[in-house]
Amino acid sequence: MGQTRRNKKYLALDVGFKRIGVATSLSGIIASPSGIIERKTNRETFSEIERLIKKYGITTVIIGLPLTSNGKKTKMAEKIEKFAEKLKSYLENKKLNIEIVFQDEYLTTATAENLETLKKRNRKDDIAAALILEEFLSNRSTF
């Protein structure tokens, strides 16, 4: 029998050109904004993601995929898919068998920017990652 959602630990990534918003769910129920990764080289970025995976015992990485309102891939979505392929290869080379799943992130960054509690613009990326993770968790039905 596979792991249930409560046994899994999730890391969500809201991938942008300059920054990656990060959120975690260590219970499989609640998503928490967990910071920002400043993008540098892929190697440095992947190393930071690897560090978080090991730190939190992550089993699944959820990556936000920007689709249009009618579900079609954007150019950024294609870039993110390539990023995810490279990340998966990097993790496999590090002997980490981590599931990578895509989650539609339509409007999550805009929603994060509009939350009244966000006075600082630099918090939108990890809030967007938490919204991506919450959407993913709400679509899962197994406990």
From TrEMBL:
- Does the entry feature the keyword Nuclease, yes or no? yes
Per its UniProt record, what CDD domains does this chain match? YqgF (cd16964)
Record key words, sorted: Cytoplasm, Hydrolase, Nuclease, Ribosome biogenesis
Fetch the Pfam families from UniProt: RuvX (PF03652)
One GO location term (cellular component): cytosol
- Gene3D superfamilies noted in UniProt: YqgF/RNase H-like domain
Q: Which GO terms describe its molecular function?
A: hydrolase activity, acting on ester bonds; nuclease activity
Q: Is Hydrolase found in the keyword set?
A: yes
The YqgF/RNase H-like domain, residue ranges: 8-112
The EC number(s) attached to this protein equal: 3.1.-.-
Please name the GO terms of the biological process aspect recorded for this protein, alphabetically: rRNA 5'-end processing
Q: According to its UniProt record, where is this protein located?
A: Cytoplasm
Purpose of the protein: Could be a nuclease involved in processing of the 5'-end of pre-16S rRNA.
Family according to the record: Belongs to the YqgF HJR family.
According to UniProt, the name of this protein is Putative pre-16S rRNA nuclease
Q: Which organism is it from?
A: Desulfurobacterium atlanticum
At the highest ranks, the source species' classification is: Bacteria, Pseudomonadati, Aquificota, Aquificia, Desulfurobacteriales
